[in-house]
Design a protein that fits this description.
- By secondary structure, this protein is of the alpha/beta class.
- The protein has 17 helices and 14 strands.
- Helix 3 (about 100-115) packs across helix 4, helix 9 (about 240-250) packs across helix 12 and helix 10 (about 270-280) runs parallel beside helix 11.
- The chain has an eight-stranded mixed sheet, with helices on both faces.
- The chain has helices at about 20-30, 70-85, 100-115, 135-140, 160-165, 170-175, 185-200, 230-235, 240-250, 270-280, 305-325, 340-350, 365-375, 390-395, 405-415, 420-435, 440-450; strands spanning about 5-10, 35-45, 50-55, 60-65, 125-130, 145-150, 180-185, 220, 255-260, 290-295, 330-335, 355, 380-385, 400.
- It binds adenosine-5'-diphosphate-glucose.
- Pfam families: Glyco_transf_20.
- Belongs to the glycosyltransferase 20 family.
- InterPro entries: Glyco_trans_20.
Length: about 475
């Protein structure tokens, strides 16, 4: 069987892994030969020429260091201040410094040069996410004929947003160098096809995108998932139960509304708290009867737009407290800290409402995890943004437009008022969908599609 080479921006570290993706890929690499390649997390004076291997809990991981300047241009710059906001349709929050593109390209070239000597001819290469769009081009330029697949964890943008990205023509050509591109949702496949097949060529200062040949690139949706059965177990583990008891003591009879997110502007956090504010304003009876807990650890906090989102959230949480709190009742708790998976599983299980309202999201695994952790005898209700990839998988959630805070407030009211029979029947459908779209099957189906067992393992394309 061919080896699998997983490539991502960061390589996983030792110890328990948070997040289903790392667990699933680790499982793939424990069942098949291969290794994981990526940045070590270390900054060096000189660009690294070679990767160094490390054994990480039985998995082979090859890492390279990056210089501070390259890392800044590639990661905080082009990847997270241009690609991330544009792909999430937040051009207002993008910083278009086109010179970052050179650093982005340089790091992708460095990844390719360090990876190439480690490859065998029939290795299957699976590249992850927007940091590494040019990697297949760079590898092919060095002579790699391997099958190479790319998975985009975030949404694919509309054509207009793509046009705002410096060198978008080259990036689209880079995508055409993959054998397979996987997206989270059908919506992303449609946006990609729209651009690849129909959009007017972009001729100013760049490549004419009409001339890019996608005929040898397969494009398909592979919605990622979690391990809902593992979450179900985790949610009744001693660590989770400890958290449940602790929260129950604090909450008494109050119903818990829970949000769990990285502190990112794509997650719609200020809008979410505003919706909760409207719920309390419009429904006097919920005061003292509900409590909202938002867990949102800072993320990418060297980037100005992230600090501003954090400030906005501070302000709106303060406003809701000032407006509705009593000396002996707080309407919400806001925690800027990450929790381990067992504690999260306990919180999910206890929450009557899982409030998952990103403005745009590739998938959103919190929605999957929340469903997995519910008590089948007394499940909570998922209020879910229709702009998360998860909305395609979970139509039985209460789907909302997160920009419309009145609508979200009304969904919260419905969720809190929903009777047990309806909660159970919705949850059963949701759980069945979460099981169908589990993360192990996701990885297997992507790899099967990239390199079917009975096919030649080299790419059919010219180098
Ligand atoms: P993220 O934007 O990070 O991922 P998401 O899928 O919701 O978003 O969450 C990732 C993981 O982080 C989850 O496993 C969750 O448990 C964990 N997490 C989030 N907040 C946490 C907290 N406060 N404390 C502890 N753990 C927390 C990107 C894309 C998503 C896509 C994933 C996977 O933006 O759309 O679903 O990749 O493809």
């Amino acid at each position: 069987m061919s080896r699998i080479v997983v490539v991502s921006n960061r390589t996983p570290g030792k110890g328990p892994v948070a997040g289903g993706l790392a667990v699933a890929l680790r499982k793939v690499l424990s069942e098949r030969e291969g290794f994981w390649f990526g940045w070590s997390g270390k900054l060096s004076e000189q660009p690294a020429r070679e990767a160094h291997f490390e054994d990480v809990d039985g998995m082979q991981v090859a890492k390279i260091d990056l210089t501070r300047d390259d890392h800044h241009a590639y990661y905080a710059g082009f990847s997270n201040s241009i690609l991330w906001p544009s792909f999430h349709l937040r051009l207002d929050l993008a910083t278009i410094e086109s010179h970052w593109y050179e650093g982005y390209r340089r790091v992708n070239g460095q990844f390719a040069r360090a990876l190439l000597p480690l490859l065998k001819p029939d290795d299957i290469i699976w590249v992850h996410d927007y940091h590494l769009i040019p990697l297949a081009s760079e590898l092919r330029a060095l002579g790699a004929r391997n099958r190479i697949g790319f998975y985009l964890h975030i949404p694919f943008p509309t054509a207009d947003a793509l046009y705002a990205i410096p060198n978008h023509g080259e990036l689209m050509r880079d995508l055409s160098r993959y054998d397979l591109i996987g997206f989270q949702a059908n919506r992303d496949v449609a946006a990609f096809r729209e651009f690849a097949e129909h959009q007017a060529p972009s001729t100013f200062g760049g490549l004419n995108t009409k001339h890019i040949d996608f005929s040898r690139t397969d494009v398909e949706a592979f919605p990622i998932g979690s391990d809902p059965n593992a979450f179900a177990k985790l949610a009744i583990s001693p660590a989770a139960t400890k958290m449940v008891h602790r929260m129950k003591r604090a909450l008494g009879e109050q119903n818990l509304i829970l949000g769990v997110d990285r502190l990112d502007y794509s997650k719609g956090l200020p809008q979410r708290v505003e919706a909760y504010e409207k719920l309390l304003a419009n429904n006097h009876r919920f005061r003292r009867n509900v409590h909202m807990l938002q867990v949102a650890p800072p993320s990418r906090d060297t980037i100005k737009e992230y600090q501003e989102t954090s400030d906005q959230l501070d302000a709106i949480c303060g406003r809701v407290m000032g407006e509705f709190a009593e000396p002996d009742w707080a309407p919400l708790t806001y925690v800027k800290r990450a929790y381990g998976q067992p504690s999260l599983a306990g919180l999910y299980r206890l929450a009557r409402v899982g409030l998952v309202t990103p403005l745009r999201d590739g998938m959103n695994l919190v929605a999957h995890e929340y469903i997995g952790a519910q008590n089948p005898e007394n499940p909570g209700v998922l209020v879910l943004s229709r702009f998360a990839g998860a909305a395609e998988i979970f139509p039985e959630a209460l789907l909302v437009n997160p920009f419309d805070t009145d609508e979200t407030a009304e969904a919260l009211r419905m969720a809190l008022d929903m009777n047990l029979d309806e909660r159970k029947s919705r949850w059963q459908s949701l759980m069945s969908a979460a099981r169908t779209h589990n993360v192990d099957d996701w990885a297997i189906s992507f790899l099967d599609r990239l390199a079917p067992a009975d096919k030649d393992k080299s790419s059919t394309r010219d180098i």
